[in-house]
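Fold sample X.
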Amino acid sequence: MAEHSKPDKPCAFSFWRFAERILPWLGVLAAFAAVTYQHQDSKEIVRVQTAIEMIKLFDSTEMRRARRRFAGEQLRAKDPTSITDTRVLEFFETLASYREQDRIDDATIYSKFSYYIERYWVSSEPFVVALRKEQEDNSFYTGFEELNTAMLKEDSKKRNKPLLIVKPTADEVKEFLQIEAALTP
């Protein structure tokens, strides 16, 4: 008769040895997860705070005056380089920079600013093109330009219409500038 060997008894301490080796790694993973969550949470807080500040700034008395002046200059301008107050362009350039740094989300930009971005870009493009040519520097207001493109794409997607249809017409831009030029501080 063949002798059957008995299976080795599991060592009573093998579970504990396993636990000794795995628990520190589980602790590291838990700490890493907590730090990651905390980092994401703080990024979201920064996004919300930035959004609130940009919304307040855009509707501030000073910015409303700048928007009124800028729109008025654009309506009267015969030469695109005659624009003198570029605070509106700087605002949108800053907004684009914050977007690029992930300090403000696209949904907020779209819901609060896309209408203005799309119209101000169309009205400002001749000035920007002239400025780039005059300064021999194509980097002026590229953030604003890219922001406009992103907003038009989002608008096209949400409205289920081609880009050419959602892009504001010259008449829409003129009407918009007239409204902005009549803003009260």
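Fold sample Y, listed below.
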Amino acid sequence: MTLADRRAINLTGFVACVGLMAYALYAEHYLYLAPCPLCVFQRVAVIALGLLFLVAALHHPRGSGRIGYAAMTGLIALIGASVAGRHLWLQNLPPEDVPACGPGLDYMLDSFPLSDALRMVFTGSGECATTDWSFLGLSMPAWVLIALLVLGGLGVWNNLRRD
């Protein structure tokens, strides 16, 4: 038995990201769990990672192109994992340390310069500290963190290995 080729594994990464986003949209529209600003940025990371997996599968580079895809996959996964980690940290703060709820992401992006809006998002707000959903004792940001680390590791390994 041989390992699947890089294209098949990149397509599998793409399908996994589509599945993650499908569940996120299901949770939003059918379970009525509105995403907080940090959730939105985690979704952006999952979408970016999925698109990168798709492009890598379609392009199927040889030689040094594989290194570029591995580096971009690792970078996107680490950025998304950092956002999920920050979200998880906020969820685990003692109640007295939770920041006050702030304005919504749309308002922040419309009313403030991008750098200020991003700073406000990553500072966190009370809405990001609530845990409305869990599975096996882990909240959604914890599952996103795990998924991004696994998918990022898979993408880096897959695109660095030789056929």
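Sample Y note: The first helix runs from residue 6 to 29.
Also: Residues 67 and 157 are 10 Å apart (CA to CA).
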